[in-house]
Specification:
Number of helices: 11
Distance between the termini: 90 Å
Helix content: 40-55%
Low-confidence stretches: 1-19, 22-41
Largest sheet: 7 strands, mixed
Length: about 350
Amino acid sequence: MNEGAKVIRLDVNVETRQRPPARRWPDQPMQPTPVTSLSDHRPGMPAAAPKTLTDILRDAVGEQIERTAEFARRRMTGDYQVDEFGYDRHLLESVILPALRPLSDYWFRVEVAGIENIPTTGGALIVANHAGTVPIDGLMLQLAIHDKHPAHRALRLLAADLIFELPVLGALARKAGHTLACHPDAERLLRSGQIAGVFPEGFKGVGKNYADRYKLQRFGRGGFVSAAVRTGVPIIPCSIVGSEEIYPKLADIKPLARLLGLPYFPVTPLFPHLGPLGAIPLPSKWYIEFGEPIVTTPFEPEDADDPMTMFEVTDQVRETIQQTLYKLLAKRRNPVFG
């Protein structure tokens, strides 16, 4: 028994000599290796807990508070610029466009094609069809160019006088970069290297009945072409599908329109029967496509005063937009509101 006990003690001593106990030096305390990411996780160490919905919402609220504080600081200190037309880029990119993105991304689900046809620098004139009873298509067009173009260019729309006479909306339109649809303003924008946008159909297009949807109205006398020729900028045809269905106009209460000083007073399936609820646009599927630029450099400046030449170019632009509309409508085979 004693010999057996000795043998056991001997085995214990041998084991102790082969594996000495780990020492912790007072001046070099042992620290665990931090886990910086999931890829750094090692067996035996606890993994970082995934963020909960509460954490995500807290981060989002924190970021929004920081953005709001930064916006307020710049507005209070005057750390922003306004050009001669009243364009306030800081307000546009911080307030106006962010308010439009949910409508474009989740309600209309706008798809954009041909954005590469818009130049990265220099002036250009975008000519588009107009529809929808309420001119939301102009806002969606401005947002599409800013968000999809690599240079995030700002579209300066040439709008009717009525827009700038409306309270609040008129001031916002100026701050968003838009101006009157007149030759002097159009040429000043184009010569300064801006992208201007025009809807030649005017109220005839935006206020047409639903039965006439996607049938282009008269483009006028081609004033937009003469502005492009005088400044030597390209004309880019733009076709928009989806705007016709947001407020299907079934009738027009003309006496009420004259009383209010409006070009028309629409009757839609929801308005005015449902009151303010009728102002909610229907969630139609949108496509915006920019065609190949029509260069104006081959023309001489005096060609801008030739009615026949301007009419031919105007007709070319109109026909390009109309044919592209037919193509996009054929592409949209799924339900309009699907």
